[in-house]
Every structure is written in structure tokens, then in C-alpha cells.
Amino acid sequence: MRTVLVIESSISGKAGKSSQLVAQFLTKLPADVQLDRIDLASQPLPHLEMNEIAAWMTPEADRSLEQAALARHSDDLIARIHQADAIVLGVPMYNFGVPSQLKALFDRVARAGVTFKYTEQGPVGLLSDKPVVVFATRGGIYQGTNADSQTPFLQQFFNFIGLSEQYFIYAEGLNMGEEAAKAALEKAEQRIGELSRKLAA
Predict the structure, then answer these.
(1) Dihedrals φ, ψ of 184, to 5°?
(2) Domain count for the chain
(3) Does 93 belong to an annotated binding site?
(4) 95 annotated as belonging to a binding site for a ligand
(5) Is 140 annotated as contributing to ligand binding?
(6) Full domain range(s) for residue 75
(7) pTM metric for this prediction
(8) Alpha carbons 53 and 70: distance in angstroms, whole number
(9) DSSP letters for 25-43
(10) Distance, CA of 59 to CA of 102 (rounded, Å)
(11) Alpha-carbon gap, residue 80 to 13, rounded angstroms
(12) 137 is in an annotated binding site
């Protein structure tokens, strides 16, 4: 790996457990890896509106200055994904879903004809596959239950745009007492060591 795109979505910023696990993972990567960071707490994206979609659909040469500025949100994000050799995300669970800031980013990454296309056989992702590492932190225990809407959503989203090499590291039960939180973080840290060695190989 030469470049890693890091996307953090905790509203707690660096104090968030997902951000802290991301930071630990990054320390395990080779020293020459370049990091491209997106912190959605300090630089949140607005929710997607129709005028921005209209800007995408307008040929670049015909865009107004306002449309060019609107389209740049999506164009820049997609360019950064193309340039990255791997993507690392910190994803806390808020009310059973992903943070709305992260959903706003996803809405700008999924673009017909750019990151996916529809065919007679169904949708096909257009991005070159690369590792996607998700650090999922939760106050309760949700992995493998019907209440975990995050995991299938993230899996489906990344598969939809062509990114099928996915790794999930969970830290759950973080609000269920000190011992439960400690055990969850220790388990996640062990998984970090295993995965970082695998990806660096």
C-alpha cells in the first residue's frame, strides 16, 4: 500500500472510540504509507440536494460557477478513492445506523456512470477493488443480530461500487460497563495486529 484514504465519522472527533481504533491501526502500517484524511466531524458535508445532482448531470464545460463548486464535492471524493490503495473508515453506531455525515459522503460517491452502472444483469461497480477496513464501534451488542443495520448496509454499498475486499473490526458493548468495554477494545486491538500484518504482506 502506498496511499490510504482515512475517513472518520465520529461526532466526538479524535475522542471517539472508532477514531482511536483507526489511529491504532494506522500506527501498524509501514512508515512510508501516505495518509489522505477526511474528518467528517471537523469538515461535515451538507446533505445532498437536487441542485447538486443537477450539477453532476451537467457537462463539465457547461457548468456555472455555482454548479462547478457543487460538483467538486463529489468529483474530489471520487478522485481520492481512485488514488487510494486502501480505505479505512471509523464508523460509530448512532441510533442503529451510520452517522449522517458518513451517509452524506456515500451519497456523493455513488454516481451512475462514474462509480457504478446499470446493465441488463443488474448494477455493476466501476471502481477498481481495494481493501476497505471498517472500525465499527457500538455501545451495545449488535453484531450478527437483526439490529445491526450498519454491516449489511456498508457491505452492500461497497459491493455496489465495486469494492468487495472488506474487513470489519468491531468493538461492542462499550457502554455496558468498564470490564465489557476493556474486553471489547482488547479484542479489537488483537484483530488490528492480525489485519495490519495481512495487508502489509
Answers:
(1) -65, -40
(2) 1
(3) yes
(4) yes
(5) yes
(6) 3-200
(7) 0.95
(8) 9
(9) HHHTS-TT-EEEEEETTTS
(10) 27
(11) 21
(12) yes
